[in-house]
Amino acid sequence: MADFTLPENSKVNKGNIFKADEDAKNIRKFLVYRYDPNDDSNPRIDTYEIDLDQCGPMVLDALIKIKADFDPSLSFRRSCREGICGSCSHNINGVNTLACTQPIKDLKGEIRVYPLPHMKVVKDLVIDLTDFYEQYASIEPWLKTSSEPPEGAERYQTKDQQEKIDRPSACILCACCSTACPSYWWNGDKYLGPAALLASYRWLQDSRDEAKEERLRELNDSSKLFKCHTIMNCSLACPKDLNPGQAIAEIKKMIATQDVNESDHK
Q1: Secondary structure (DSSP) of 215-236
Q2: Which DSSP string corresponds to 36-58?
Q3: What fold is seen in the domain 130-257?
Q4: Domain map of the chain by residue range?
Q5: What is the pLDDT of residue 40?
Q6: Residue-wise pLDDT tens digits, 106-141
Q7: pLDDT tens profile 139-168
Q8: Regarding the domain delimited by 8-127, which CATH topology (the fold level of the hierarchy) does it fall under?
């Protein structure tokens, strides 16, 4: 009989327990993933008892309190605290979301905070986003034109034209969608993923951009685009309520209905 097991160094152990003060009454337990590459030990789950009467309302507030009051060695990313920068994306109780916009009161039971799934962990809750950003850069997310701009004026859009790019432009590159996608888990080295493809769709929809055929030709590839199997985890995971799955479907439709002859559809 086949024996399936995880490598020894990938098994997550029980870690330390940090108790709240004895007089604390409004306590919630936070189970936080800990991993230090400079330490030979396995990853562990540390448990922190947080007095919510002495803590802000969001999961990020709890992480900040843990770092300030319990364990300064805890590593995580944060910046704006307003759901704009995308820095504090984590897997919280099994769901990819932003710690700064996730109210503690909306979560039941013990609160489990892990790094985004299927990504290399740099330390604790910090993941390596190098490939993710390279994939974003590969779709050339800037305005590409061959014509001269109007003399003394900008390249104007109508209100309807602007509305087509308004929602896709709201992506904050938090990586919640891509790291929720099974196709990205297994093919992350070739498949661009929902975040990069949503960004590509934003430029394909921009009335001012003059490189639509070139962009579609680059995307018309069995791995870059067509590894998407319309699972739609990406749209469910997006904390900004965007719809990468629909954007990817629209790109496929554009390729199917336009003559993109130069692609070899690898």
Answers
A1: HHHHH-STTTTTT-----HHHH
A2: -TTSSSPPEEEEEEEEGGGS-SB
A3: Fumarate Reductase Iron-sulfur Protein; Chain B, domain 2 (1.10.1060)
A4: 8-127, 130-257
A5: 84
A6: 999 999 999 999 999 999 999 999 999 999 999 999
A7: 999 999 999 988 889 999 999 999 999 999
A8: Ubiquitin-like (UB roll) (3.10.20)
